[in-house]
Every structure is written in C-alpha cells, then in structure tokens.
Design brief:
alpha+beta, 2 domains, 18 strands, flat, disordered C terminus
Length: 557
C-alpha cells in the first residue's frame, strides 16, 4: 500500500512537474509569437507609410520640375499639370501654385486673377486684408492658382502666405534649401478642418538656383499614417513636432486629434517607434499594441497547466504537449518561411520594376527637356510621354503584370489620334517590358501623324498592322506602321528622343531590328523581333508565381 501510494505520488508529482513545464513553455511561446507578430506588422506598416510619403514627395519634385522659367503672374499655372497630378492618385486635399511676386508685379497679378474668374482679385495678406504695394519693400509669396477649384478653395487665391504662421517659415526654408519641405501639422482649408501637412516644392528659374515660386500639395494626416485598419494589432500615433508632450491620434474614421502624453505610470508606453523621412524632416510614429501580450500569455499557460493536471497522466501529458508543440511549431515555421520568401520576392520584383520605370522617366525628361528646346512643345511632349507610361503601367497593373493586349495599346486614350489609326493583326499578349517600349514607340509615331502636310490637303491616314510568322521558338514578330499621303518633304523630322527610341531603344528592348523609310506615297516604320522576346514567358512565369495565393499548410492527420 505504501509502495502503491509512493508510485501514485511519484506519478502525480511527475505529472504536475510536466504540466508546469508545459505551461511555462506555452507561456514563453505565446509571448514570443505575439511579440514577433507585432514587430513584423509594425515593420510592414512603417514601410508602407514611407512608400506613401515617398510617392507624395516624388509628386512634388516632378511637378516643380515640369516648370521651366514660368510667367509667375499667370493665374492658371496648374492647367498643364492637372492630368499628371491626378494620374499619381496621391489623394491630396488641394494643390496650389504660389508665386514669389515683387510689389511692382501686384497690378499685373491682380489683372491675371481677375481674368481667371477668381472671386477676389486683390492681393491680400494672410488675414484677407488688402495690401498696398507702395508700402512694401520685399517680395511676397502669393497664392495664384489652386486645384481643385471650388467656392471654398477659390477664396484663398490672391492671399500672401509669407507671414502665415505655419506656411511662412516653410516657404523660407524651401527657398533656402531648394528642395521640397513639409510643414508642421496644421488645420487644412478652414479653422477646425482636418489636420494635415503641406508639402512645399520650390520652382527654380532655368539656369539659376533662385526660386520664382512654389508648388504645394496638402494631405490629411490620417491617410498618410494608414491609421484606419480596424483589424490591426496596434494603433499608430504621430509624435507632435510642435510639442514633445503631445501626440496626433487618428480614429477609425481617419479624423486626427491631439492628445497629451501621460506620464502617470498607468498609461501603457508605446510598443515601438519608427522614424520616417518626408519633406526634409524626420517624423516619429509611435505604435501601441491593442492586445496585452503579458495578460494573454499567462491565460494560455494556465489553460495548458489545468489540462495537464486534469489528465494526471505522464504519457497523456507528455505526448499531448509534444504533439501540440510540434504541430504548432511546424505550422508556424512553414507559414513564416513561405511568407518571408514571398515577401522577399515581391520586394525584389517591386524594386526592379520601380527602378526600370524611374530610369525610363528620367531618360524621357532628360531627352525632352534638353538645352535649347521650346518650353511649350517640350512640356506637351513630356506630359504626353509620361501619360503614355502611366497608361501602360495601369494596364499592366490590371493584368497583374502578366502582359498587355497589343491592340489595347494602340487603341488606348494615351495614344494621340488613335481614332485615325487602322489596326490589323492578331490580338497577342506582349510582355511587360515590351509593352512599355511599344507604348512609347506608338506615342512617338502617333504624335507625328498631324505634323506633316498632306500631298492632297488631308491629314495622313495611318495603318498599323502586324503578323506572326512561324511557330514555337522560331516564331518571328513583324510590325509595320504606314502613314499615307506623307513624304520626306512634308513630314517633319523626328525629335532626337524619337529617333533614338525608334532606331535603337525599342528594337533593342524587343531583341530585334527596325527600319524607317519613305515610299512614293507614305512613311513606313517596321520592326522585326523574335516572338519569344516579345512575349517573354520567363517574366510571365515569375509574375504568376509571385501573384499566386499563399496556401496554408495541410493539417497533419
């Protein structure tokens, strides 16, 4: 009896010890998993926020770069940029053109504002009081154009922002640095309006480092912080740069309010902080966990310990815990490995594509805005070429970068005079790389269709046709562009950028050759390339693998 009691007591002690060990391990695992998941979610969120901020700063740089020695007293300076700034889809509240005016230019500026139909054409200060040019001895930063135009936004046009408490110092810093600068958080549009930031990008005079004005974009803070995810593991706040003892908090609707940082020892501290760069300034995001990992882990540990003690069996407790731990650990490892591989692949692919697109845009801007080019012509060509790139990127995004239908490229609204192009050929799917080159090629060809003088007094008629000869690896792609009623004497020569694109860039991107010549009645451009380069199955397979859904591992039986 004593011996049996000893054995039972020994088994009970061993069972309790094993149950306690199991509870401790579960506690550590749950705590570690929660912390890892929270840290990974914070890193991903911070990366997305930085990407959004970079996009918006890039919009400011591109917009300011499109100006070349502008007439700063015009009241419709944003007109050429409207299609471009909306193509970026950066959800700005308002965009504006702020000219740096000398007092002697007030009269001309007021006439420009009156002619543009703004309700108040007088030059006023930030408090809407009229200014007397005779009493001023320094230039002022005057709001001359705004987008979108409404009854509320148009009322701000004509005001001087030099002495505005928030924006005045930002203009001064942008003028000194020559780069986009972000303002402190401020109420947009009117007192009590949404809290946001204003990005100020200086517009430099051509051949000089002196700013003649500024392009500004205003953004609400809530969308910039990505603070509307109800299922997130954390809530995010922005440390107020105006006061170290306050934070900017966005609720579930995106409305931002200011709250004081508590130091009472009861209010939880931020789980992590991340610093983002925007507008030449550092912004600190603080993350507060929505779940208390310290409370959840002990609850899970107590549950496992209770189950182990209830079983009071060393075999059941041991194998139950081992089976549970191994299954959970294996599933966690498999999901984590799959997620990290896919995340790495997506980031690498995104970096590759963004670098390619930025390189193409840089080449377009450099070639289009070369020294000595006509500003108006270069601006229209630049907007058209960037619009063509934006259109093909939109088409590729809709197809998850699987490719674009060739007929769709020719019939797109980004191609000038597409309604006068007769299209003939099989509707093949071209690769992403080929689509970008072909889109620019079609734009360059189509933009010249109305420049030549017809031999019979009509615009040239255009026929675009293609065919595929052969099958398999020997298939050859032939493309022919023919403009009728055009001759070498009447058709204007292609630009430097167009010549390089037609003769070298597009053929090399397709892995083929090109030629252009005049017949008795037409202008002809032809491209011949291997079909396997035009389609590029290797790129399509890689994109399909990245975009494929991530399957959860099967449960072990």
């Amino acid at each position: 009896m004593v011996r049996l009691g000893f054995i039972i007591g020994l088994v009970a002690i061993v069972g309790v010890l094993l149950s306690g060990l199991a509870a401790y391990r579960v506690h550590e695992q749950e705590f570690a998993i929660d912390r890892i998941a929270l840290a990974r979610a914070i890193d991903v969120h911070a990366s997305l926020v930085q990407d959004r901020l970079t996009e918006r700063e890039l919009l400011g740089r591109v917009s300011s770069g499109l100006f070349r020695t502008p007439s700063i007293i015009k009241a419709d300076m944003l007109q050429p940029l409207r299609s471009s700034i909306y193509a970026f889809k950066t959800d700005f509240v308002v965009a504006s053109w702020v000219a740096r005016l000398q007092p002697a230019e007030f009269e001309a500026a007021q006439q420009a504002l009156s002619g543009a139909g703004f309700p108040n054409s007088r030059i006023r200060d930030a408090d809407d009081k009229p200014l007397d040019a005779a009493q001023l001895d320094k230039p002022l930063d005057v709001l001359m154009d705004i987008e979108p135009r409404s009854a509320e936004t148009s009322a701000f046009v004509g005001r001087s922002l030099t002495d505005q408490p928030v924006l005045g110092p930002v203009f001064a810093r942008a003028m000194a640095d020559g780069t986009p600068v972000a303002s402190d958080p401020t109420e947009l549009l009117h007192p009590g309006g949404p809290i946001g930031l204003v990005l100020v990008a200086p517009v430099l005079q051509q051949g000089s480092d002196v700013a003649v004005g500024f392009v500004t974009f205003s953004y609400e803070l809530g969308p910039l912080m990505l603070a509307n995810d109800d299922n997130s593991l954390f809530s995010v706040v922005l440390s107020d740069p105006r006061n170290a003892e306050s934070e900017l908090v966005a609720d579930d609707r995106g409305d931002v309010t200011v709250r004081t940082v508590a130091h009472d020892g009861v209010t939880p501290r931020p789980s992590a902080q991340r610093t983002e760069r925007f507008g030449g300034r550092d912004w600190t995001l603080a993350y507060y966990a929505k779940k208390n990992s310290f409370a959840r882990a002990p609850q899970m540990a107590a549950m496992v310990g209770a189950i182990g003690i209830a079983l009071t069996g060393i075999i059941c407790g041991l194998f139950g815990y081992v089976a549970y731990s191994n299954l959970r650990l294996r599933r966690e490892i498999e999901v984590r490995i799959g997620f990290e591989r896919r995340l790495t692949a997506v980031i690498d692919e995104l970096n590759h594509r963004v670098k390619n697109i930025l390189a193409v845009i840089q080449s377009i801007v450099t070639r289009t805005l070369r020294h000595g080019s006509d500003v108006d012509v270069a601006r229209d060509l630049l907007i058209g070429r960037i619009h063509a790139m934006s259109n093909v990127v939109s088409l590729l995004t809709e197809s998850q970068w699987q490719g674009v239908k060739l007929r769709g490229l020719l019939e797109a609204r980004a191609i000038p005079h597409s309604e006068r192009i007769a299209v003939n050929g099989p509707d093949i799917m071209v690769s992403a790389r080929a689509a970008q080159s072909l889109s620019l090629l079609f734009f360059e060809l189509a933009s010249h269709t109305d420049e030549g003088l017809s031999l019979v007094g009509k615009h040239p008629n255009v026929v675009a046709q293609w065919e595929v000869e052969g099958t398999g690896a020997d298939a050859i792609f032939h493309f022919r562009w023919e403009e009728f009623n055009t001759s070498a004497a009447t058709r204007r020569e292609d630009s430097d950028f167009g010549t390089i694109l037609l003769d070298r860039v597009a053929p090399e991107a397709l892995g083929g050759t090109a030629k252009r010549y005049f017949t008795d009645v037409s202008y002809v451009y032809e491209v011949t390339a291997p079909m396997e380069t035009v389609v590029d199955m290797t790129e399509r397979d890689r994109t399909e693998q990245i975009s494929a859904p991530l399957h959860a591992p099967r449960k072990s039986r």
